[in-house]
Write a structure and sequence with these properties.
elongated; 69 residues
Length: 69
Amino acid sequence: MSRRRRAERRKLAPDPVYKSVLATRFINGIMLDGKKNTASKMFYQAIERLSETAPEHNGFAIFEQAIKC
C-alpha cells in the first residue's frame, strides 16, 4: 500500500485563441512527443479551413458541434 496521497487532477487552462477547454483537450490529444506548438498550429489551420469552406458558419462552432454529436 502506498504511503503517499493520491495525485490531484490539474485543471486545464483554456486555449488562448478561443478560450475553450475543449480546444485545449483536443490539442493535447493530437500532440506527439510533447510538441504542443506543432499540434496547436495543426488545430488552428484546420479551424481556418473549416471557416473558409463554410463562410456562413464559424469554424470553431462547426468543430464544437462535431465533437458533441
